[in-house]
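Entry 0007
Protein: MBL fold metallo-hydrolase
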Amino acid sequence: MGLQLQMLGTGSAFAKNYYNNNALLYDGTFTLLIDCGVTAPHALHRLGMSFNDIDAVLITHIHADHVGGLEELAFKTKFTFKRKMILYITEELAHSLWEHTLKGGLYQEGEISSLDDIFEVRFLQPLNPQSLTELITVELLPTNHIPGKASYSLYINESIFYSSDMTFEPSLLLNLVQERGCRTIFHECQLSGPGEVHTTLQELLTLPEDIQKITYLMHYADDKDDYLHQTGDLTFLEQNLIYEL
Ligand SMILES: Nc1ccn([C@@H]2O[C@@H]3COP(=O)(O)O[C@H]3[C@H]2O)c(=O)n1
Ligand SMILES: [Zn+2]
Ligand SMILES: [Zn+2]
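Output (C-alpha cells):
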C-alpha cells in the first residue's frame, strides 16, 4: 500500500464551514498529523479518532490554525494517554512554539517546563530529506509567508509537494516538477482579494496546464463553492476524503 492523505480540514484560518487546514498522512502502520490547529481536536472527534490514534505531529509554522490544538494534544497525551507523541519540528520553530505559544498554558512546576516533558522532540533540518518511517521521507522547504516568520512547506518522498501557508513561488513549483520528479501538489489557495501572505487562485491559474492538472487547492475560505467552475485545471481538495498518493 502507498501513502494515503486525509485532510482533517481544508479551511483558511478564519473559515467556519471547514476545519483548519491540517492533514493526516497514513503509511499503513504510522499516522502523521501535519499541523494541529484550533479545530483539530474536534475534526478528529468527528472522524471517530483521538490523539491516541496519531503517532507523530509535524509543524509547518506558528499560527493558531496550525498549532492552536497542541495544548489539548499535550494535556491529553500526557495525562490521559500517558505517552509522548513524536514532534517533528525545526529547532527555530521549537523554541518559538514553547516560549511564545505553549508555555503559558502548559507550564506546571515539577511536571512540564519544556517541550521535552510533553513530546519526543525530533528536529528536522530544512533542505535535508529525512526518513520519518520506512515509507515516509520529508524535506522541509523554507517558503515565504509572513515577513520575519519561519514557515516550511513539505516535499514528501521526492514526489509530493505540500505547501505551508506561503506566497506564490512559481519558480519553486516549476523546479520541483521539471527537475525533481514532483507529481502531485497540494497548495494553499486564497480565493479572492490580494495575496499578501497567501497564494491567490488567480496566481495559481498562471501555472502551465500540466502543473495545474496535478495541483489540489486547500486552505480555502467559506465561499469555495462560488469558485467551483473558476479553477481551470486545478482541483479542490476535500476534507475527510482519503486520497491515495
Ligand atoms: N499580515 C497578515 C497577517 C495575517 N493575516 C491573516 O491572519 C491569518 C493567520 O493565519 P493564516 O492561515 O496564515 O492566514 C492569515 C491571514 O488570514 C493577514 O491577513 N495579514
Ligand atoms: Zn493557515
Ligand atoms: Zn499562516
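Curator remark: The radius of gyration is 17 Å. The pocket of CC7 (ligand 1) is lined by residues 12-13, 63, 65, 146, 165, 196-197 (CB under 6 Å).
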